[in-house]
């Protein structure tokens, strides 16, 4: 087995017309994400239809049509390789449930790619009050995506085309609101591109000076691909104690109980004694399997099933967390403090409010027991002690009491288990 | 004679300066005429305007002063001459500041106007474009209870879930381990009509077959 490239999840965000999909498509297209057979098939049918120029746009349309009919199932469609990484693109939909899925879901984004259109009127609309650009960037920040790349798209549609002045205007505007949200604009690469013509990488000769200025002579930073390669790889938390939230528990005839889940931190090995929380059970791992193949060591990110002794299926359930009984086993809590950011909630929130909380795989109603302090979203500085109410846009420390035992962990020690989603807000 | 001959044969270009001058003038005329004169005309005009504005302001001010302090300053006429230039300068300074401010706000206004204009143009363009229905493609993992669950039946159940704006796509069975397989099924939903919670609820209603449902991938179309 050759050395695999580090896997990075990129979430693409931006206003509706910023050209996200086209940019995504072009990246995938250029970096060999579309397999050769399919390309050949498209080329063939394109030639048959007399469109032998075989435009990228046409391919994109075809793929879109395929996806719309639900024909393609492969997530690999949105996967491509750069020099250093294997990247999976998450093309953020406008669907309201997507946010929740991003927070509790399996695919955590490591990097956000904010696409901003520079075309006349589109940039203005994107960053206007009703535009989505700000909201999306805020979302990325709240989701804990600390790395952000800004693509100034549609450079071919500026007046005049590829206008440096326009680029600078957009950069100024975007960096000012990124700063307001909490990002440091100095660390954010801004790349002018054209997702349509594919000129994310070439053309625009005036753009060369920029790279030297920003990265102090570092070779990275001129084209979008180079920027993607310059990102910090996600940290794999192998050396931390094991945490494995259960997704499902199966009963297999002749084998016994098989819980399945994705390892968030640490490693899992046969022979290990596990502690389940909040079920408060211990059990020994007999064997581990992934995709029907036995495993000797399972690492973070692996979705594994494992066979345990002496535990009945009914004693375990989704939402339980497995840990190593010898090394900082997980425990349940009767109450906990959480930092919450209230997004998009119409009314005022007071003590006693009880939203449903989604955290890793669990699903528990929690009560706001105490509003401790209101915080500045960006700096985390305290603004007010014991606020009476919270409204949309506020950040606060809140004491939460779950109605039944649940396992949560500090975001700082076990990030995946510390991210919560409270009905319509989130915490980390 | 000799000396003159010598000079005639000399290759020094005595009147190069004149040619240069002519050349310079020619090129100036060629290029500069349109721009330079325009620019100078523009600047001239703006200067004239500025001066005119300053003058009218000054006149107004003087008129006010004449009316107002007539009693307090009994002999303004002789001093006026001496104070006038100073005043003028002052006035002009003020004027400049005003102008600057004016221009500044003008710029802002203009930028604002431009922005609005662009927004409007965008809205118009948008209105013309047929509104696309936002759709997402969701990949669901549907998990059975054990290795004996009838996956064909399970898939039938899942596909029996019907809703406006929901389209089931292809599916496949993915091995999990110990003989268990999960059903991975794609669906296309209209963003405004179908939510993941609803899907999850509807599918988990078949509790004889389904243990849990997870969203494996969620993408925009």
In the CATH scheme, the class of the domain at 135-220 in chain B would be Alpha Beta
Identify the CATH homologous superfamily of the largest domain in chain A.
Answer: P-loop containing nucleotide triphosphate hydrolases
> What is the radius of gyration of chain B computed over CA atoms, rounded to a whole number of angstroms?
43 Å
What is the helix tally of chain B? 5
CATH topology of the domain at 135-220 in chain B: Alpha-Beta Plaits
Strand elements of chain A, count: 20
Number of domains of chain A: 3
Helix content of chain A: 10-25%
Spatial order of the strands forming the largest sheet of chain A: 2-3-1-4-5-6
CATH-defined fold name of the largest domain in chain A: Rossmann fold
**What is the CATH C-level name of the largest domain in chain A?**
Alpha Beta
| Radius of gyration of chain A, taken over Cα atoms and rounded to an integer in Å | 24 Å
Helix content of chain B: 55-70%
Number of DSSP-assigned strands of chain B: 4
Please list the strands of the largest sheet of chain B in the order they lie side by side: 2-3-1-4
Describe this structure in words.
- The complex is a heterodimer of chains A (428) and B (221).
- Chain A has helices at 20-30, 36-48, 56-68, 98-104, 122-127, 133-142, 164-181, 208-215, 224-229, 415-418; strands at 6-14, 79-81, 85-91, 111-117, 147-153, 190-192, 244-252, 256-262, 273-277, 281-290, 293-295, 303-308, 321-324, 336-342, 356-359, 362-375, 382-385, 395-402, 420-422, 425-427.
- Chain A has 428 residues and is of the alpha+beta class.
- In chain A, the strands form three sheets. Chain A has a six-stranded mixed beta sheet, with helices on both faces.
- Chain A starts with 5 loop residues before the first strand and ends with a strand.
- Mean pLDDT of chain A is 76; it is low at 208-220 and 422-428.
- By secondary structure, chain B is an alpha+beta fold.
- Chain B has five helices and four strands.
- Chain B has helices spanning 2-9, 16-67, 76-128, 151-159, 196-204, and strands at residues 135-144, 166-177, 180-190, 210-220.
- A four-stranded antiparallel beta sheet of chain B has the order 2-3-1-4, with helices on one face.
- Chain B is elongated.
- Chain B starts with a helix and ends with a strand.
- Chain A: It catalyses: GTP + H2O = GDP + phosphate + H(+).
């Amino acid at each position: 087995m050759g050395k695999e490239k580090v896997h990075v999840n990129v979430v693409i965000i931006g206003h509706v017309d910023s050209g996200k999909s086209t940019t995504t498509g072009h990246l995938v297209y250029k970096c060999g994400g579309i397999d050769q057979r399919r390309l050949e098939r498209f080329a063939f049918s394109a030639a048959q239809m007399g469109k032998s120029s075989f435009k990228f746009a046409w391919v994109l349309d075809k793929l879109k049509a395929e996806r719309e009919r639900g024909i393609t199932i492969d997530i690999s469609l949105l996967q491509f390789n750069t020099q250093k990484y294997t990247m999976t693109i998450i093309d953020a939909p406008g669907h309201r449930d997507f946010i929740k899925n991003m927070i509790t879901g399996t695919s955590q984004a490591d990097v956000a790619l904010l696409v901003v259109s520079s075309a006349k009127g589109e940039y203005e609309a994107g960053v206007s009050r009703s535009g989505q650009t700000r909201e999306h960037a805020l979302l990325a920040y709240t989701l804990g995506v600390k790395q952000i790349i800004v693509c100034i798209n549609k450079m071919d549609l500026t007046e005049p085309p590829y206008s440096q002045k326009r680029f600078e205007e957009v950069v100024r505007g975007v960096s000012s609101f990124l700063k307001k949200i909490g990002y440091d604009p100095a660390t954010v690469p801004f790349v002018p591109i054209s997702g349509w013509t594919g000129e994310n990488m070439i053309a625009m000769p005036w753009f060369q000076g920029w790279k030297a200025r920003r990265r102090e002579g570092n070779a990275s930073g001129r084209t979008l691909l180079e920027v993607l390669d310059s990102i910090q790889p996600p940290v794999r938390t192998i050396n931390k104690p094991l945490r494995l939230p259960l997704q499902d528990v199966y009963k297999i005839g002749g084998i016994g109980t098989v819980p399945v889940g994705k390892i968030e931190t640490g490693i899992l090995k046969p022979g290990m004694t596990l502690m389940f929380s909040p079920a408060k059970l211990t059990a020994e791992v007999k064997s581990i399997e992934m995709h029907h193949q036995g495993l000797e060591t399972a690492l973070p990110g692996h979705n594994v099933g494992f066979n345990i002794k002496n535990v009945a299926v009914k004693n375990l359930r989704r939402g339980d967390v497995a840990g190593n009984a010898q090394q900082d086993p997980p425990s349940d809590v009767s109450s906990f403090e959480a930092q919450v950011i209230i997004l998009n909630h119409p009314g005022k929130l007071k003590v006693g409010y009880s939203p449903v909380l989604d955290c890793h795989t669990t699903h528990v109603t929690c009560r706001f027991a105490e509003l401790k302090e209101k915080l500045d979203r960006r700096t985390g500085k305290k603004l007010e002690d014991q606020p009476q109410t919270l409204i949309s846009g506020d950040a606060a420390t809140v004491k939460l009491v779950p109605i039944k035992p649940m396992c949560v962990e500090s975001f700082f020690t076990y990030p995946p288990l510390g991210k919560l989603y409270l009905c319509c807000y989130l915490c980390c | 004679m000799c000396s003159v001959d010598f000079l005639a044969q000399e290759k020094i270009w005595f009147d190069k300066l004149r040619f240069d001058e002519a050349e310079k003038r020619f090129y100036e005329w060629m290029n500069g005429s349109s721009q330079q004169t325009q620019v100078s005309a523009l600047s001239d005009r703006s200067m004239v305007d500025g001066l005119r504005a300053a003058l009218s302001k000054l006149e107004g001010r003087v008129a006010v002063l004449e009316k107002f302090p007539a009693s307090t300053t009994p002999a303004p006429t002789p001093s006026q001459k001496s104070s006038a230039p100073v005043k003028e300068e002052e006035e002009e300074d003020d004027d400049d500041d005003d102008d600057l401010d004016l221009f500044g706000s003008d710029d802002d206004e203009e930028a604002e106007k431009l922005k609005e204009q662009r927004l409007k143009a965008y809205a118009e363009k948008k209105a013309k474009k047929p509104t696309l229905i936002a759709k997402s493609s969701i990949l669901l993992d549907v998990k059975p209870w054990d290795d004996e669950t009838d996956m064909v039946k399970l898939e039938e159940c899942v596909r029996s879930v019907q809703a406006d704006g929901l389209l089931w796509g292809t599916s496949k069975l993915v091995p999990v381990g110990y003989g268990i397989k999960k059903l991975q099924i794609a669906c296309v939903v209209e963003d405004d009509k179908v939510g993941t919670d609803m899907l999850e609820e509807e599918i988990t209603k078949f509790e004889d077959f389904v243990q849990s449902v997870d969203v494996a991938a969620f993408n925009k179309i």
